[in-house]
Amino acid sequence: MVFRLIIITCLFFYYCSIPNGRSEVYSYKIKQFVNSWQSNQTIQYPADEFEIQALIKHAYQQGSTIIRVIGSGHSYEKAISDEQDINAEQKLMLVSLEKYHGVTIDKENNVAIVKAGTFIGPNPEVGNKDIKKSLVWILNQVGYAVPDLAGITRQTVAGFLSTGSSGGSLLYSFYDVLVGIRLIDGKGTIHNIYKQDSKFHAVGISMGLFGIITSVNISLMTKSFYVDGSETISPIVPPSSNFSVGCPIDIFGDGNQQYPSLTKFFKTGADFSRLIWYPQKDVDRSVIWKASKYDRKPFPPIVPYQQFSETNLTAVSMQIADAFTIMNMLAADTEEYYSLVNSIFDQLQPIGKQEFFDIYYNSLPMDNHLSFKILPISFTELWIPIEKTKEVMNILRNYYLTHGVNATGNNALEIYTSGKSHFWLSPSYSTDAVRFDWYWFDNNPIGTAQNFFQQFWDLLKPFEYRCHWGKYLPDDYNGHRLHKLYPMLEEWLKIRNEMDPEQVFVTSYWRKIFSIKKLEK
Ligand SMILES: Cc1cc2nc3c(=O)[nH]c(=O)nc-3n(C[C@H](O)[C@H](O)[C@H](O)COP(=O)(O)OP(=O)(O)OC[C@H]3O[C@@H](n4cnc5c(N)ncnc54)[C@H](O)[C@@H]3O)c2cc1C
User: Fold this and answer.
1) How many other C-beta atoms can be found within 10 angstroms of the C-beta atom of residue 359?
2) 162 CB less than 6 Å from ligand 1?
3) How many angstroms is it from 471 CA to the middle of ligand 1?
4) ipTM of the prediction
5) Looking at residue 18, what is its pLDDT?
6) Could you tell me the distance, in angstroms and rounded to a whole number, from the CA of residue 160 to the centre of ligand 1?
7) According to CATH, what is the number of the domain 227-467?
């Protein structure tokens, strides 16, 4: 009762302090672009390739317009466009491909030709309104699938691929079936780049800096599949086969016959997996999600994965948003606060286990059932060779134990993997990687994402991590540091320069990261 009263009082004062109430605070990132319309900034919605080409040619000839293409707008804003670039001499044109979607199945060549603006999969946030237009749905109609999916599927195909995004698997990747990319470069020239071409592994992950991808070819080689899996919520230590006492994985140790180490779990525990760690004192809880392909017949009945005990997407998201707000506002290293946080997580993520069985596109995107309008989150994600998992986990544990609420925050750390990639700018280029993904609730009344993430950028710097391109990057993630991390970067930049000699796609943000010199005009 007292706990409820504290929450209601805090929320009352919090909402009173917001100028236009909840709807403004929860406005969606993409809307910000449209609303902040200015005379030297515009957004275009081309409906065919000819129009896309015309926009680029116009910018190329005109010389003072930067073009940035936007998918679903789920990346860190600056990865898409940078307000710094709008000034009296320079214009910014955002190109949205929301009218440019669709999938053609080419049975003869065994490929699906997917227009760049096509959504990958369902988006329960809008009641799955467009599910029948999504890639996974259309592929499923002809018996095929993509090999893996991320935690959500509301990204566009080109936006997802352009930042090197991927799901949590060492075995399967969306990129495994990518066999062709059609792109209009900075001069307006159309390129068809296939897997055997030398530029293919450069263009695949290029953050809109080579041109606008208009379609991709996906090989029809993964048959549609079902997965069975489980999610276990338990204390993160000690290892135990009883989830109410401890964790089924030896998270910080070497593991043994009974409990695998975390590295072993990622490598052999399941086809797809992830660990969520709530490191707050007295909570210290793990959520182990795993799933594997299921091909034995007959199939068991469908049992959908359910992320939180409440099934209503809006209600769950609001409940979590409220909890985060309270925890952020009251944060203090006191026994009262720890006990409050513990009781909140007991409600949100109670100790327990569920099992599920479903078609892959309803199970692998385990975060699909949250509203990111109500629960806007920023991320930073550091990719490290998988052999370092135990070492990093122990450093983090020690850090959380010694740095209190400023380190643990009010949210979770997601830990998952990605298999070795051939794409030059993939953060898992030539190495299997473990990924550490910190969450920051954007409506936290106190603090900033940048400041919160900085401590982890500093802490793990000796591990020479590579960062997810669609999420927050450290300020000093550039220059020599990047060349050391990405051995093919120089070649990548050379191709970029050939494709975009007038720097039509270069924003200040990307210019700094890749040390792209300004053109002398
Ligand atoms: C809630 C949430 C969950 C997420 N889960 C995961 C996850 O599990 N795994 C993971 O790896 N990532 C994850 N991400 C990150 C997300 O996958 C990436 O940010 C992705 O790039 C977003 O796709 P988008 O369609 O929104 O592209 P946008 O964010 O709109 O664009 C991303 C980049 O691609 C460029 N781009 C877009 N379209 C084109 C095009 N046609 N041609 C050339 N360039 C283009 C843009 O200019 C920009 O630089 C998550 C993000 C959120 C918000």
Assistant:
1) 17
2) yes
3) 9
4) 0.99
5) 36
6) 4
7) 3.30.70.2520
